[in-house]
């Protein structure tokens, strides 16, 4: 018999039970559900709403149930629909009528809201630690490659001088913003909905501040209707995770390109690559490809959640039961991707020789060549045109700017002199970019130091 079956004269259809039940996925919140119930029972006793002796018994028995759940001794059933009913039935089986008092001044609507907030709050903390670990790995490898010159790209065309450190610290910066988004989400969700009831609060003299404090929330929610119908925190987390996955996907794309024979910038450790069933020479970047592919899955979770919530009137509606599978999947997917991506990155080998060769062949010092003319007094647009002609000439002759003779430079402009060769040396170009955020080793070192401090 269902705990809510009082006004019903017949049992629900078995297919309805299957559709209605959520225990298959919300059982992962057993710890939060039991902890929340312990805080609620303690408050009921403190307020004299139920006898203190029964409140103490409920809290004690719930603690025992929690230990049994952790030990794998409890089997939840679909008959009891969800984690809330399963726990309440277990409690009542153990202590009888006293267990039936637990749900006083509470609804499953505010109960599931507090469970989900507590669960996601914990998951956000775990995800933040994993993001920090990846950022730290990026900083560690960048530290080794402050002067490993490589071409920077725009439009996937070689553009200007960079270093492996400068290039990859861009991803550290993206991930640092992801940490901020996760922190913002965690802060905004940290208001306790317990005490909102079904949607209109309760006539019992409950102490919402007591339960909020006991469960680690900053304060109770301000409106009981919003308290049970708000899922902004789920949407915000799914959005933050989607942006995080977008960053991992872009990083994966770089790694896939860099690991190719055409680039050859990096070599993946054998433990984080796979082979082909038919081509013995293959070493495939499958981990990076899977992370790139799973990004679409997390996007789908976000779109599913937005679609569920878009047309719901206040307050709670059963549609909102669909929130958990999507956000659980998004959290699980991002967590797994971070777990695998970080050691893949840590163990890959950077091919400094390949980076330097690519830098030497792409005219990435062309802007510096133009800047040299500007410093001699030529307007930038005229300098730009002169260097464009030089690059065209180099392509036709199979040369680089470094290998042109001074006579060849003078054929374009008499302003060039011997000092130009030092000006377009790649290391000179690199170290001259001393602007904050630029690729000069000193500037990248400051970025690394700042990032390390930020993630502490």
UniProtKB/TrEMBL annotation:
One GO MF term: argininosuccinate lyase activity
Subcellular location per the Swiss-Prot or TrEMBL entry: Cytoplasm
InterPro entries listed in its UniProt record: Arg_succ_lyase_C (IPR029419), Argininosuccinate_lyase (IPR009049), Fumarase/histidase_N (IPR024083), Fumarate_lyase_CS (IPR020557), Fumarate_lyase_fam (IPR000362), Fumarate_lyase_N (IPR022761), L-Aspartase-like (IPR008948)
Gene Ontology BP, a term: L-arginine biosynthetic process via ornithine
Record's catalysed reaction(s): 2-(N(omega)-L-arginino)succinate = fumarate + L-arginine
Major localization listed first in the record, in broad terms: cytoplasm
Family note: Belongs to the lyase 1 family. Argininosuccinate lyase subfamily.
The name this protein goes by in its record: Argininosuccinate lyase
């Amino acid at each position: 018999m269902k705990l809510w079956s009082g006004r019903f004269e017949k049992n629900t259809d078995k297919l309805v039970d299957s559709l209605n039940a959520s225990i298959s996925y919300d059982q992962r919140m057993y710890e939060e559900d039991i902890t929340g119930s312990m805080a609620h029972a303690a408050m009921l006793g403190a307020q004299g709403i139920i006898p203190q002796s029964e409140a103490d018994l409920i809290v004690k028995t719930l603690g025992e149930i929690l230990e049994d759940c952790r030990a794998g001794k409890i089997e939840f059933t679909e008959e009891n629909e969800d984690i809330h009913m399963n726990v309440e039935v277990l409690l009542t089986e153990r202590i009888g009528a006293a267990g039936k008092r637990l749900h006083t001044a509470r609804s499953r609507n505010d109960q599931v809201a507090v469970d989900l907030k507590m669960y996601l709050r914990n998951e956000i903390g775990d995800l933040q630690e994993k993001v920090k670990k990846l950022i730290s790995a990026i900083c560690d490898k960048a530290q080794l490659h402050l002067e490993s010159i490589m071409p920077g790209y725009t439009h996937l065309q070689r553009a200007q001088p960079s270093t492996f450190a400068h290039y990859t610290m861009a991803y550290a910066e993206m991930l640092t913003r992801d940490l901020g988004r996760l922190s913002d989400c965690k802060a905004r969700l940290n208001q306790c909905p317990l005490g909102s009831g079904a949607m209109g609060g309760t006539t019992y003299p409950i102490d919402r501040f007591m339960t909020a404090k006991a469960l680690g929330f900053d304060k109770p929610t301000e409106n009981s209707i919003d308290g049970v119908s708000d899922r902004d925190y789920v949407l915000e987390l799914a959005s933050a995770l989607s942006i995080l996955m977008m960053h991992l996907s872009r990083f994966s794309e770089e790694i896939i390109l860099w690991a190719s024979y055409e680039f050859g910038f990096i070599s993946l450790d054998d433990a984080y690559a796979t082979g082909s069933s038919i081509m013995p020479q293959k070493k495939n970047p499958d981990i990076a490809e899977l992370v790139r592919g799973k990004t679409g899955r997390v996007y789908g979770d976000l779109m599913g959640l937005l679609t569920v919530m878009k047309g719901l009137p206040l307050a709670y509606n059963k549609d909102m039961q669909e929130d958990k599978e999507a956000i659980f999947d998004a959290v699980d997917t991002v967590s797994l991707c971070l777990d695998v991506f970080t050691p893949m990155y840590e163990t890959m080998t950077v091919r400094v020789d390949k980076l330097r060769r690519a830098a030497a062949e792409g005219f990435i010092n062309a802007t510096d060549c133009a800047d040299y003319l500007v410093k001699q007094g030529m307007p930038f647009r005229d300098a730009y045109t002169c260097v464009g002609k030089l690059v065209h000439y180099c392509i036709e002759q199979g040369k680089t700017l470094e290998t042109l003779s001074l006579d060849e430079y003078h054929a374009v402009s008499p302003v060039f002199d011997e000092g130009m060769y030092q000006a377009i040396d790649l290391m000179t170009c690199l170290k001259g970019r001393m602007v904050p955020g630029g690729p000069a080793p000193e500037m990248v070192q400051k970025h690394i130091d700042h990032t390390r401090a930020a993630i502490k």
